[in-house]
Amino acid sequence: MRVSFPHMGNAYIPLSALLKTLGAEVIVPPLPTRKTVELGSLYAPEFVCLPFKVNLGDNIQALNMGADTLAMVCGSWACRFGYYGRIQHRILRDAGFEFESLLLGRDNLGATYNRFRKTANRSLPLSWASALRIFHMKAKAVDKLESLSRKIRPFEKKRGSTSQALAEGLRILHEARDIQKARKAFQKARDLLLSVETEKSRKPLNVAIVGEIYVVIEPALNFSIIERLGEMGVLVHPALSIYKWLFRSLKIDPLITADEKIAIRRTKPYIPYDIGGEEHQTIGGTIKAAKRGYEGVIHLYPLTCMPENISRVIIPALERRCNIPVLNLCLDEHSSPAGFMTRIEAFLDLLERKRARNSTV
Amino acid sequence: MTRVGIPRALSYYRYFPLWETFLEECGVEIVRSDPTNKLILEKGVSHSVDDICLPVKCYFGHVLDLNEKADYILVERILSPERNLENGFTCPKLMALLDMVKHGLEIKPKILEFCLDSRKHPLTRAIGRIAKSLGIPKRRALNSMKAAIERQKLYESKLTRMDVSIEKRNCQSGKNEEIPLTAQASDLFPRQEDARSEMRKPCAKVTSHPYCQPKRDLKIAVVGHEYLIFDKFLSHDICGKLERLGATVYTSSALPEEIIEKEIMKYEDISWVYERDLVGAASYFLSSGIVDGVIFVVCFACGPDSITMEIINREICPKNRPPVMTIVIDEHTGDAGVLTRLEAFCDMVRRG
After folding, report:
1. What is this model's ipTM?
2. Across the interface, do A277 and B92 touch by the CB < 8 Å criterion?
3. Whether residues A89 and A8 fall in one domain
4. CATH of the domain at A37
């Protein structure tokens, strides 16, 4: 079984560890680029949301690399994401590709569990247990490394050294095959990041990033906004991370559950019902940023995303009430890095000025 | 007297008998927003986010139209409509429409909430809440509620006439009776004449057009959301244009629930209730052979429809014969463009 799955930031590290431990051969498509987006848009419906197109592009690249099984989650939520697997696999079959679907949903957990009976080299429950263990460990490690790099980056002496160390660290982590090696790899990656030369005297701006999970996490779509902001000397605080997203529905980490609960409570006066996306993290994250005294918020969302569109309508009211500037950026396959960065630079200039004015008064 | 404004958009086309009868019986003056026109749409577009769907922009325009005219505005929040579904809900935008109006628009009138979540509460509670916030005594509210629900049921039975299935029987037995469903459906809406007369003007030329067929020899189904196909301005009066081109028009909302339930069983389920209806209707029209062609009307940036159209085009269409056309509408769509496509479609169906 040669399994592949669409990209989502660094989610490929824990996911491929999970599938490899279950005995499947994993085909990781190349990290998404503009080419992936174009490839996906060629086959995707016209006004479907952007992540759909990128995922489709990833799948096509993986199939061209020889994958014979495509994995995806599915379900029936108010957001379109639950239908991605069903439609994408239908589109690909119509386009002439042959493969098997591995759709993981609440109704077919048993079927997914049994799917690996042939490939697992130990007994099935044992393989699953160790697979889930390494999955959790690697997801958490990726999360820790990413957040550490965000803290170090604004202070680095040589521009780009943190990103280099992070990339190297993630590579080591990805190559570690079992949990002992992964632990060692994590230590090594952490040391790599900590050894980056820093200059602690700078006073960086604090900016929160909220919005739709995929565009916040996927550097190919947001033009590596987290990295670039860090290099411009900004402490970035994304409201979402891969680890949070992967383990949100499993409810095994009390920290994530508590964080979600707080966000939902903060969102209640604005959107009292669950509308299926990350709207509570967007609204709650903006309020949290204001409470913590951050200088600004950047709201990212893909074109026609339903939950984020609703948040986008409500955010101006929030901006006035919480007195925090928010930059709304809508992304689609036609956005260009230059225009995107110009707007961010202008926004940061405004924040800088506001801070300077406030400190002199 | 208290004046309550009702925006003539979105679920108005589904729930107007209920809302209007109830408010009238309670002795409240009703103010409807004008039928959608250019000004309303422009207002809505300029007061909303760029990439939200057209019906929501239009709804904003209607709410703003009522800004000066009313003391209260009835705003809907439909979480799950009256159906026997365990896990059915509507599009997120309908769920959060009230929040968008509350926080996204600055309006003077107070907001009356019509919050329908039939998974948890019956319809009566949604209406009861309106009465409570208007300060109407309980007994009067209860009586009005009864009348309103009766009217709503009458409307629904008129709209979803069982004629479609009778029609089917006639088709099979060789008889060919014509039942123009749209004409009746749109006659059910109050005071559509003002909208219609306005829309008829440019179309008067059409009747004298050489391509215009005086006799009705085509049967065409129009599948789309009610707020789109029954709004003559938004949909560019697609149903009327088809009728003038010599087609008998069937709409998806004329199909009774039983047919839709039966059709949807053939495919994997969808949890958006209104879109589920569309898939069921499309499947019925495409497979039953009662129509010569099917036209899907979608608006640009409609979230659920981007998925359901793909399901219809890829899962339902290949199995069935009649020709299919999809018309995507946004605020820039031109009237002439729509007409050209409809004419071409009718020609194609006639020759094929």
Report:
1. 0.90
2. yes
3. yes
4. 3.40.50
